[in-house]
């Protein structure tokens, strides 16, 4: 709070003496992000635009948004956590906990992997994503993800 004071020749009114400068809180900076979630039939991905508070760590912020599908179909296992991440050129390397490996059937796996890849490749610095679980390449009953996965426009409705 800042109080204003000054010389006015001694004729201040009560309201002038009690004036204070009111500062409005600055609105939080927001950024628009593009996320991908399963459609109602869980066959394709829907592109969803959201405005989120500007974050220092956009990678973590996007993962948290992917865990919150709203009216769309969830693509991530509930207990999945992003443990850490790094980059190798234009490849984003994501390391998840063990729960992430439980992606369900092949259709669920397809949607989850492509939702993540398509979300992160919306960022201009990434063209593909590598998937790890506890520092090991992700292996499911359907695929071994030992190579970076590129963006898949065909997964989008």
Automatic annotation (TrEMBL):
Question: Domain GerMN spans what residues?
Answer: 59-142
Show the ranges annotated as biased composition (Polar residues). Answer: 10-22
| Coiled-coil residues | none
Q: Which SMART domains match?
A: Germane
Q: Provide the residue span(s) of the region labelled Disordered.
A: 1-22
Q: What is the designated name of this protein?
A: GerMN domain-containing protein
Question: What organism is recorded for this protein?
Answer: Heliorestis acidaminivorans
Q: Which classification does the entry list for the species?
A: Bacteria, Bacillati, Bacillota, Clostridia, Eubacteriales
């Amino acid at each position: 709070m800042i109080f204003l004071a000054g010389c006015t020749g001694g004729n201040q009114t009560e309201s002038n003496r009690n004036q204070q400068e009111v500062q409005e809180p600055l609105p939080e900076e927001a950024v628009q992000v593009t996320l991908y979630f399963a459609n109602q039939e869980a066959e394709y991905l829907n592109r969803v635009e959201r405005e989120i508070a500007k974050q220092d760590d956009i990678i973590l912020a996007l993962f948290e948004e992917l865990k919150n599908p709203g009216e769309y179909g969830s693509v991530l296992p509930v207990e999945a956590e992003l443990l850490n991440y790094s980059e190798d050129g234009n490849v984003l390397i994501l390391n998840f906990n063990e729960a992430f490996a439980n992606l369900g059937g092949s259709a669920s796996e397809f949607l989850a992997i492509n939702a993540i890849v398509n979300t992160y490749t919306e960022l201009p610095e990434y063209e593909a994503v590598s998937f790890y679980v506890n520092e090991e390449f992700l292996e499911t009953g359907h695929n071994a993800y030992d190579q970076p996965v590129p963006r898949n426009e065909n997964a989008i409705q």
